[in-house]
Amino acid sequence: QLQLVESGGGLVEPGGSLRLSCTTSLFSLDSSVIGWFRQAPGKEREGVACINSEDTSTDYADSVKGRFTISRDSARNTIYLQMNDLKPGDTAIYYCAADLFKRCLLDPLYGSWGKGTQVTVSS
Questions:
Q1: pLDDT (tens digit per residue) in 21-30
Q2: Would you call 17 helix, strand, or coil by DSSP?
Q3: How far apart are CA 114 and CA 20, in angstroms?
Q4: What per-residue confidence (pLDDT) applies to 40?
Q5: Hey, which residues does 97 pair with through a beta bridge?
Q6: What is the pLDDT of residue 54?
Q7: What's the pLDDT score for residue 56?
Q8: Do the Cβ atoms of 36 and 70 come closer than 8 Å?
Q9: Could you tell me which of 22, 105, 111, 117 has the fewest CB atoms within 10 Å of its CB?
């Protein structure tokens, strides 16, 4: 069920940065845990980062720790994924997902998804 909208993807050189956004007009994201996932061609969808609803604590995949940051903007009902020092291996379609879990997960078990935004890292 597609209820979220991602934006901000594009083509960037290695070492560059992008900021992805995830929003919806259907419900408040403040009460949801949010996850960012990615899927490269021929690979399974993998969790990249997630943020909890109550304390805004976060979790990251080891492959992106120190480079990616997930954050909330409650006024804009938007979740961001700031991606720095991008590498060719980060190339994928990036999806955001929402659910009402008690704690966020890096597993793709969420009920609400967007259609994704393409991120390509290449020189």
A1: 999 999 899 9
A2: coil
A3: 12
A4: 97
A5: 35, 113
A6: 80
A7: 84
A8: yes
A9: 111
* Exposure string over 7-30, b if 16+ CB within 10 A, otherwise e: ebbeebeeeeebebbbbbeeeebe
Judge contact between 13 and 123, C-beta under 8 A: yes
Residue 110 tokens, joined:
């969420």
Cβ pair 67, 85 in contact under 8 A? yes
Start-end of H helices in the chain: none
Mean pLDDT, rounded, of the chain: 95
Q: Can you name the residues that pair with 11 across neighbouring β-strands?
A: 120
- List, for residues 27-48, the tens digit of each pLDDT value: 899 999 999 999 999 999 999 9
54-63 contact pairs (CB < 8 A, 24+): 58/104, 59/104, 59/106, 61/106, 63/89
For residue 73, give the 3-state DSSP assignment.
Answer: strand
Q: Is the pLDDT of residue 55 over 90?
A: no
- For position 1, what pLDDT does the model report? 64
Alpha carbon of 47 to those of 14, 72, 76: distances in Å? 21, 18, 24
